[in-house]
Amino acid sequence: MGKVSVLLFAAAAEAAGQCRLDFEIGAGIDAAKVLDLVVARCPGAGDILRQSALAVNERYATPATPVRSGDVVAIIPPVSGG
Q: 2-76, which class in CATH?
């Protein structure tokens, strides 16, 4: 068991109502599973979270990227502008 921190930015943080979450994780977890944990804790934010990019330890990640104890996962929502 270990701990992972999740940082939420912009619209993802607004939808979730917080900008940081911490989770206890087991071995063999990936970024997709961490995202599932966030959605479970913040179900009203699920739509924006599922559209967001992921990063692990400040590097963009795929859903299959492994996550280990002590890692920081960032959820970065899409940006729109004009």
A: alpha beta
